[in-house]
């Protein structure tokens, strides 16, 4: 099972109750379904869940700078409803996988094989951005390709990890196929590159010389992005199930994003 539905971070801050209903109540219904299927068929149901860097919460920029590449178990104090939802759902998945109804006479845990990828910002050349707080990078690209001006809502020096969408899809598929004996965690960081917002702008302007991209930081959205790590440590994913992104920053823009987006808006 791949449970990909979610209400994203920006919209979640305007409708936190709805975000909880979609992100948490929807998740527990899917876990219950997986549990019952596992009991019925007598074998674990592999359950793939996309978590997010929103599960992190760095207290200030100085701490963020000192922290460098952050591992899965540090700074798990999110500041958004979306981040709270994602972190709680990671714990729900671990509970269903390892501790479900642990006081029951019959052992019922182990019917859900929960596996989660904690994604950085995902950049797609196909899907239009739809409400993520990391969407300033893809929004630059799509606006430039359409010849529209764009005012970026974070500072030029803002830095968080990103990944090209094909590598995100591949990460879920690879983790789903990994032997359970090789997995040492239920939640894994993945990352690929971490340009500053100004470095993203430079690549976009290089590809679309007439692009009108400026910076108009939105204080509250900036605070959210500042609470996320500048980079993540994905050592466990690379070791346990062979995670290896095909697209570094240069390849992501030159071989995937620019050609795909140009074709979209021809």
Describe the model.
There is one protein chain. The radius of gyration is 19 Å and the shape is globular. It starts with 8 loop residues before the first helix and ends with a helix. By secondary structure, it is α/β, with parallel strands linked by helices. The protein has helices at 9-14, 16-41, 61-67, 81-98, 136-145, 165-177, 197-207, 219-226, 235-241, 249-264; strands at residues 45-52, 69-70, 112-119, 121-123, 150-152, 162-164, 187-189, 213-215, 231-232. Helix 2 runs parallel beside helix 4 (81-98) and helix 5 packs parallel to helix 7. The protein has a single domain, classed as Rossmann fold (3-Layer(aba) Sandwich). Helices cover 46% and strands 13% of the residues. The strands form 4 sheets. It has a 3-stranded parallel sheet, sandwiched between helices. Strands 2-9 form a two-stranded parallel ribbon. Strands 4-6 form a two-stranded parallel sheet. It is built from 10 helices and 9 strands.
Descriptive terms for the model:
single chain, 266 residues, alpha/beta, Rossmann fold, three-stranded parallel beta sheet, 46% helix
CATH level 4 superfamily: NAD(P)-binding Rossmann-like Domain
**Shape verdict:** globular
The poorly predicted ranges are none
Supply the CATH class.
Alpha Beta
- The Rg value, from CA coordinates, equals 19 Å
Beta strand %: 5-15%
Short description:
By secondary structure, the protein is an alpha/beta fold.
């Amino acid at each position: 099972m791949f449970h990909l539905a979610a209400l994203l971070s920006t919209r979640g801050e305007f409708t936190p109750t709805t975000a909880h209903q979609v992100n948490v109540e929807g998740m527990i219904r899917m876990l219950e379904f997986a549990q019952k299927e596992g009991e019925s068929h007598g074998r674990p149901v592999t359950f793939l869940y996309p978590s997010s860097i929103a599960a992190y919460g760095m207290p200030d920029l100085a701490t963020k700078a000192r922290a460098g590449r952050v591992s899965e178990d540090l700074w798990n104090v999110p500041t958004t409803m979306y981040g709270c939802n994602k972190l709680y759902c990671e714990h729900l998945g671990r509970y269903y996988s390892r501790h479900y109804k642990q006081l029951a006479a019959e052992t019922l845990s182990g019917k859900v094989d929960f596996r989660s990828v904690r994604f950085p910002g995902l950049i797609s050349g196909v899907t239009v951005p739809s409400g993520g707080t990391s969407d300033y990078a893809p929004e630059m690209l799509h606006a430039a390709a359409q010849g529209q001006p764009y005012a970026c809502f974070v500072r030029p020096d803002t830095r968080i990890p990103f990944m090209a969408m094909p590598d995100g899809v591949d990460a879920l598929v690879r983790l789903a196929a990994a032997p359970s004996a090789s997995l040492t965690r239920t939640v894994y960081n993945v990352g690929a590159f971490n340009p500053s917002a100004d470095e993203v702008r430079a690549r976009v302007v290089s590809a679309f010389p007439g692009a009108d991209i400026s910076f108009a930081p939105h204080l509250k959205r900036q605070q959210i992005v500042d609470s996320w790590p500048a980079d993540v440590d994905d050592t466990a994913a690379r070791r346990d199930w062979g995670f290896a992104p095909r697209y570094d920053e240069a390849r992501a823009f030159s071989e995937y994003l620019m050609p795909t987006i140009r074709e979209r808006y021809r």
